[in-house]
């Protein structure tokens, strides 16, 4: 809380830009000065309400330009976090987009309510009562239609929990955004080609292994079976390879380059992962927890495939097309025990340490079984939350699997528009702010891993503020040195990604400098943060 209070201003605009005062005598027989639009400016942001819901932007950056008038309503001592939660509540209830009415339930109604909440201030009465006083009922419909074309628009928007946070588009921003979008499309196309080839290779290996198994069952030795399977394969028609796709040699070279780059990155910023997890033991516990559960033949096959992968050390190619459907049933079927879900998540946490797990993850783009389950973390038992967090932390062991967690492409889940990075962020915040020590350990690890990723700023547009707010709240609880270092490191990285993060640190607090002297490495991160905080 800021001891001197934060100023609260009312920005007043004329939606007609002077036309009302010129045309009103002719239209309604008397002069009105303007048709008023207002907004609240607090915490260095402008908040207003319109047909798209509640919007925030840099003060004075809407298409209306500079306000006609600015009135100081007072000062507020409401903490930013409380204010933010209040705005989120309005955005999903009385001030959602569908409730907007240009002349009645409008921006001025919103400004009045927010002003009273912040400092007990009021919008001038002549603005609040204008619809009833100045606009006869027969003219409201016509004026609504005319003014509908004058409402601020044309902004680039990023959504966060129902509130639209806007920024004005500059030519430089549009150019950069187009370049990023083009690069993202190219990257997705390459990923799709790689995934298609990888899946073909995996299917081919599974087919070959089934032939070997069948020949062994018929009495052949391991070597004989291998030779016979290869002989059969040699005379079978081969699957055509697209000339447009990269060759196997190209893929090998690219994979080697990625491994080298990953090793270089890891030596500089190694992720926090949990290696003391035994895949064989976890599988044994999982199989035991499934005793008494009726499994289909396909699910039994998937269980056998998981054993080959985790216990026998086979490649991810052994995991068939039905494997993720099997995992999805374990995670979503209420008749299956929580202990079975915990053990399968721990199996996945062990699998996440392997560099070929990304081939399995990409198959989940159709069902979203893993992250659809993760989105409901706040309703899960604590032990399930912990097992899930272990899995997600360990996915940062390798570049390809960690990038999967940060994808920004949207998908639908039970009526919600989600993305991988939004779900990852939700899990991170839920664990960070838990009272359970084990969950907080995983939460700070996940925060550190997310913030340490070298990705384009656009990836963090939607989550920087949410992660920073959770980090600031955690520091208020005087965490242990390890957790404090991870949190300060994340804040330093997030401050590099978003200009809003330093503002939050300055306004919301606590002051990072208060933790100087905890350790040399904590002091180093505090220095980096304070360079950004003005």
Brief rundown of the structure:
This protein is of the alpha+beta class and 534 residues long. The protein has helices spanning 19-28, 80-91, 107-119, 125-128, 130-134, 137-147, 171-217, 222-235, 248-268, 279-289, 297-310, 323-332, 338-351, 358-363, 369-374, 382-394, 399-405, 420-432, 437-452, 457-460, 464-475, 481-497, 500-508, 520-532, and strands spanning 6-14, 36-42, 45-50, 53-57, 69-76, 156-160, 163-167, 410-413, 416-419.
Brief descriptors of the model:
534 residues, alpha+beta, endopeptidase fold (from Nostoc punctiforme), 3 domains, seven-stranded mixed sheet, two-stranded antiparallel sheet, 9 strands, 10% strand, elongated
Q: Percent of residues in beta strands?
A: 5-15%
Mean residue pLDDT: 78
Compute the separation of the termini in Å: 18 Å
How many DSSP E strands? 9
Helix content: 55-70%
Count of domains: 3
Question: What is the count of DSSP helices, taking H or I runs of 4+ residues?
Answer: 24
Give Rg in angstroms: 29 Å
**Uncertain stretches:** 145-161, 167-181, 231-246
Shape: elongated
**Structural class computed from helices and strand pairing:** alpha+beta
List the helices and strands and how they pair.
Elements: E1 6-14, H1 19-28, E2 36-42, E3 45-50, E4 53-57, E5 69-76, H2 80-91, H3 107-119, H4 125-128, H5 130-134, H6 137-147, E6 156-160, E7 163-167, H7 171-217, H8 222-235, H9 248-268, H10 279-289, H11 297-310, H12 323-332, H13 338-351, H14 358-363, H15 369-374, H16 382-394, H17 399-405, E8 410-413, E9 416-419, H18 420-432, H19 437-452, H20 457-460, H21 464-475, H22 481-497, H23 500-508, H24 520-532
Parallel strand pairs: 4-7
Antiparallel strand pairs: 1-2, 1-5, 2-3, 3-4, 6-7, 8-9
Helix pairs in contact: 7-8, 10-11, 10-13, 13-16, 16-18, 16-19, 18-19, 18-21, 19-22, 21-22, 21-23, 22-24
């Amino acid at each position: 809380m800021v001891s001197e209070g934060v100023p609260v201003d009312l920005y007043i605009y004329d939606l007609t830009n002077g036309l009302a005062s010129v045309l009103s005598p002719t239209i309604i027989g008397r002069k009105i000065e303007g048709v008023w639009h207002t907004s609240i400016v607090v915490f260095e942001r402008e908040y207003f309400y319109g047909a798209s819901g509640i919007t925030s932007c840099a003060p004075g950056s809407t298409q209306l330009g500079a306000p006609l008038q600015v009135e100081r309503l007072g000062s507020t001592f409401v903490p930013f976090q409380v204010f933010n939660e209040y705005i989120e509540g309005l955005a999903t209830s009385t001030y959602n987009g569908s409730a907007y009415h240009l002349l009645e339930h409008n921006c001025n109604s919103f400004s009045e309510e927010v002003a009273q909440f912040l400092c007990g201030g009021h919008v001038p009465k002549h603005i609040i009562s204008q619809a009833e006083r100045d606009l006869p009922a027969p003219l409201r419909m016509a004026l609504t239609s005319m003014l509908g074309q004058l409402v601020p628009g044309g902004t680039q928007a990023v959504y966060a929990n129902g509130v639209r946070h806007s920024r004005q588009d500059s030519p430089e921003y549009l150019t950069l955004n187009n370049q990023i979008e083009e690069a993202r499309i190219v990257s997705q196309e390459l990923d799709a080609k790689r995934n298609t080839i990888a899946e073909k290779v995996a299917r081919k290996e599974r087919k070959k292994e089934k032939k070997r198994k069948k020949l062994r069952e018929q009495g052949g030795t391991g070597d004989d079976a291998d030779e016979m399977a290869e002989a059969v394969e040699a005379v079978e028609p081969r699957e055509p390879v697209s000339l447009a796709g990269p060759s196997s040699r190209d893929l090998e070279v690219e994979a080697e380059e990625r491994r080298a780059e990953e090793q270089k990155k890891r030596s500089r910023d190694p992720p926090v992962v949990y290696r003391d997890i035994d895949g064989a033991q976890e599988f044994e516990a999982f199989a035991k927890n499934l005793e008494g559960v009726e499994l289909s033949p396909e699910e039994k096959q998937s269980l056998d495939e998981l054993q080959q992968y985790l216990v026998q050390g086979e490649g991810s190619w052994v995991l068939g097309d039905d494997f993720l459907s099997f995992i999805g049933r374990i995670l979503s079927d209420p008749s299956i025990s929580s202990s079975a879900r915990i053990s399968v998540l721990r199996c996945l946490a062990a699998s996440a340490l392997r560099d070929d797990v990304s081939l399995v993850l990409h198959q989940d783009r159709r069902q979203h079984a893993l992250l659809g389950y993760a989105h409901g973390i706040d309703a899960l038992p604590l032990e399930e939350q912990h097992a899930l967090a272990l899995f997600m932390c360990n996915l940062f062991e390798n570049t390809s699997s960690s990038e999967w967690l940060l994808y920004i492409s949207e998908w639908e889940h039970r009526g919600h528009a989600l993305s991988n990075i939004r779900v990852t962020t939700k899990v991170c915040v839920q664990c960070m702010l838990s009272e359970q020590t084990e969950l907080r350990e995983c939460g700070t690890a996940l925060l550190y891993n997310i913030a340490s990723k070298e990705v384009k700023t656009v990836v963090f547009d939607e989550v920087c503020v949410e992660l920073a707010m959770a980090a600031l709240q955690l520091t208020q609880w005087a965490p242990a040195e390890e957790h404090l270092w991870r949190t300060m490191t994340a804040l330093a990285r997030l401050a590099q990604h978003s200009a809003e993060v330093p503002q939050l640190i300055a306004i919301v607090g606590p002051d990072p400098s208060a933790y100087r002297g905890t350790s040399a490495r904590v002091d180093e991160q505090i220095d980096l943060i304070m360079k950004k905080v003005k």
